[in-house]
Amino acid sequence: MKLFVDTADLEEIQEASQMGILDGVTTNPSLVKKQGNIDFHEHVYKICEIVDGDVSAEVTATDFDGMMDEAHSLAKIHENVVVKIPLIKEGIKALRALDEEGIPTNCTLCFSSTQALLAAKAGADYISPFIGRVDDISSDGMTLIEEIAQIYDNYGFDTEILAASIRHPTHVKRSALAGADVATMPFNTLLKLLDHPLTDRGLERFLDDWKEYKQARKAEAGMA
Ligand code: G3P
After folding, report:
1. Closest atom, ligand 1, to C-alpha of 28
2. pTM passes above 0.90
3. Does the beta carbon of 26 lie inside 6 Å of ligand 1?
4. Alpha helices, DSSP H only, in the chain?
5. Pocket lining: 87 vs ligand 1, CB cutoff 6 Å
6. What is the pLDDT of residues 124-138, one digit of tens each?
7. Which range of residues forms the domain containing residue 45?
8. Same domain, 133 and 185
9. Residue to mutate (ligand 1; options 108, 165, 189; most atoms within 8 A of CB)
């Protein structure tokens, strides 16, 4: 499973990258806004220089021509850029056209498996089901991932399932069990994947025992 961070924060991306397990980055207009007064294209370039993997950057036009113009200019920034296209009718047309041009795409704002079917037919490289936001409205985000995985498997679509809007480690675990190809998550959620109280307690005990062992060795050496 590929692991992406869902952030536009360069320090977080750098830190995740230094862990050696980062496969890519996803951004969206809300995440870019959090970075304050930055130049979007320059910022995307900086992210691409940090990460050796796919970096999703989203168009904000909602008409076909506007999406295509933005997609072309985003794709020119860096070879790592994957153009994020919203799951609307004009977006489906843009996905098809970009696929024909060989520009990689991530179809975003997916909330149903029938939407995901259309995105795959249009040639999207990634589909982004927003599981946390589905949970937010008392529905089940994981069922969405399972349905998409089943449908893509039934028909041999090669669109990769990118589980998005991940809020906690259980979302990551269940996405992996359901066969999602990628999980994108906030940096603090990535760090939470490490957490286990028995690891902390076990390490503390090992280090205490090691200290006592060393002290005993030193004391014996002193007596000899
Ligand atoms: O990048 C899209 C997605 O991951 C958004 O997550 O937490 O805003 O629902 P969230």
Report:
1. 1
2. yes
3. yes
4. 10-18, 29-33, 40-50, 64-75, 89-101, 113-121, 131-136, 141-155, 169-178, 187-192, 197-223
5. no
6. 999 999 999 999 999
7. 2-193
8. yes
9. 165
